[in-house]
Design goal:
The protein is an alpha+beta fold. It has two domains: 6-97, Transcriptional coactivator/pterin dehydratase (Gyrase A, domain 2, 2-Layer Sandwich); 104-210, 2,3-Dihydroxybiphenyl 1,2-Dioxygenase, domain 1 (Roll). The chain contains five helices and 13 strands. The strands form two sheets. The chain has an eight-stranded mixed β-sheet with strand order 7-8-9-6-10-13-12-11, covered by helices on one side. Helix 2 packs antiparallel against helix 3 (77-92). The two termini are 21 Å apart.
């Protein structure tokens, strides 16, 4: 299977869906639990018919759906087809989507030697010291955010420098940045926007607003 790039996904015009980090995400505004449960059941039947199974989270006011071809480690045409089918299903039930709502949080930790500390963080976060994929600590069950190691220079004095990466829809990034600035933050570095923009709070703690554009 061929992994689709960001431009191919944008050209597919999936009105309800946005690519965040590695997967397609959508939020459907069901408004109550029983409507959400019915939508989840319908998505389940559709997934069985298409032999492709999304991650689905049911809450009282909405249903979140995530699509990724795990065997290809990316988004493929199979995900695009299922995304369209789920959107058509939701529309038939009179359920609207909120494309600006999905978000994914990742943690980044500076280190000069990911192989030395990776097993520790994998064991701490997931209970499995082998849950390391390259520079990432990955929890297959999705209980904790992905942790990735940002390569830095070697240093003798122990230090700890985390920052948060927040993935948002590409067409919602400007509004999120503006909201953070209005709440007392500052833009530290926008030279790599719209790929990512570095912001800081009033004490200098940093975070990145990330999108899939220009990657």
């Amino acid at each position: 299977m061929t992994i689709l790039g960001t431009r191919q996904i944008l050209d597919a015009d999936l009105r309800d869906w946005r690519k965040l980090a590695r997967a397609l995400h959508a939020r459907f505004l069901t408004g109550n639990f029983s409507t959400g449960l019915a939508l989840v059941a319908a998505i389940g039947e559709l997934a069985e018919e298409m032999d492709h199974h999304p991650d689905v989270v049911l809450t009282y006011p909405h249903v979140d759906v995530k699509l990724l071809s795990h065997d290809a480690s990316g988004i493929t045409e199979r995900d695009v087809r299922l995304a369209r089918a789920i959107s058509e299903l939701a529309s038939a039930h009179g359920i609207a989507a909120d494309p600006a709502a999905p978000a994914v949080v990742e943690l980044a930790l500076d280190t000069a030697d990911p192989t030395a500390i990776g097993p520790f963080w994998a064991a701490l976060l997931t209970g499995d010291s082998g849950a390391v994929d390259g520079d990432d600590v990955v929890d297959p069950s999705g209980r904790v955010p992905l942790l990735w190691f940002q390569h830095t220079d070697a240093h003798e004095t122990p230090r700890q420098r985390f920052h948060i990466d927040l993935w948002v829809p590409h067409d919602a990034a400007d509004a999120r940045i503006a909201a953070a600035v209005a709440a007392g933050g500052t833009v530290v570095d926008a030279t790599r926007a719209p790929s990512f923009t570095v912001l800081a709070d009033a004490e200098g703690n940093r975070a990145c607003i990330c999108t899939t554009l220009d990657r």
